[in-house]
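Weekly modeling sync, notes
Attendees: AB, CL, MP (scribe)

Item 1: holo prediction request
CL wants a bound-state model with pyridoxal-5'-phosphate before deciding which constructs to order. AB pointed out that an apo prediction alone won't tell us much about the pocket. Agreed to run with the ligand included and paste results into these notes for async review.

Input as submitted:
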Amino acid sequence: MSTTEILTEVKALTKRWFALSPKEPFIPGKSKIGLAVPSYDWEEAYEAIESILTTQVTMGEKVKQFEEAFAKYVGVPYAVMVNSGSSANLLALSILSNPLTKNGIKRGDEVITPAVTWVTTVYPIIQVGAVPVLVDVDLDTFNISVREIEKAVTPKTKAIMLVHLCGNPCQMEIMDIARKHNLLVIEDSCESHGAEVDGQKVGSFGDLSTFSFFFTHHISTIEGGMVLTRSEEYAELAKAMRAFGWIRDLKDRERIAARYSHIDPKILFITTGYNLRPTDIQGAFGIHQIKKLDRFIDMRRENARYWTESLRQFPYLLLHEERPGTKHVWHHYPVTVKPDAPFTRKELVDFLQKKGLETRPIMTGNMAEQPVMRLFEHRTVGDLPNSRIIQRHSFLFGIHQGIGKQEREAVVDYFREFMYKVRL
Ligand SMILES: Cc1ncc(COP(=O)(O)O)c(C=O)c1O
């Protein structure tokens, strides 16, 4: 058998393997509805196996193809893949604070960011020597409050690290504030693949943007991330800093190498850097996942439409709305128990969990209340009342493509049963 014939057989067997895994029948109140399901199928699995069998496993052609496809999808010219969304945030901040970047972030500069987000939105700000300024969020979107950003700006402010949380795009009037005060903008879009404002995709507004392809996200490369930018200069720096600061992946590598003829170009370093490289196995996943993204988003939106219509009847629940002119892509389905409700979040969540509906708090909750923040210089703008409410009263559950008609109807029944139990 030739290698080509073996690959054809492996492909057919992989396809059969996935066809053999039928979904278990759903039993309301018994079957688990988890926060995520695998988003990959035989195409991704075979593409990854092909990389392994042909030994093309380190960052290569498939990563490049995925970068090109993802950049095109978001509508920006440059994309640089890395091994996680956290790495993408670290790389974005590191580019902006690199000595090669003109008018970048300097030690002690302030970076405005929402108080409710994931920890690795905030850590890279600290890691590059800047000071995070935590700003409150709006309760109906969980996104950074535009009014609070205005209050946060001081002569020390250099950048806004905004976050499109839970799939809901931020109000992009933020760009006007940034222009007015000459601030850099990084969009942490790790939870919002495909979200739009006035037909423009998130991740295409700021100086740099980041995405995560962790297992639970809209599309996944198991672990993985991406930095996007319209700036060729930033993209080249991203390619250098992703891999040790060497020149191997740069467009201008020959011209740079000619200036240092006494150093072998294979080991010529022009900046500091990290090893944040993805593998081609992650690229293999990405090139198939990107083709499925819009379909996955449609399924999430259909679930959200049904839940929002149905759960609206319960007056003590505060739900997320899609703001006019935006496309919300629902990373999860968030719910806030109004603080004056005659039941607690814990009582509701315990009930839902018993029924099999997996829940979790909203990302890190209020970052300002996390003990880790005591270790580092930071500033908060006001008392962050909404972030405090989210910390104490909000939770989320899954909304992914594994949830169909039966599951989404069962979820509403669980809520109805709970409200009946507490006589509401
Ligand atoms: C808003 C936000 N930023 C950054 C990250 C980090 O991404 P990763 O888990 O791929 O490191 C996440 C993770 O889900 C996130 O939700």
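Recorded for review: Residues 133 and 351 are 37 Å apart (CA to CA).
Action items: CL to compare against the apo run; MP to circulate these notes.
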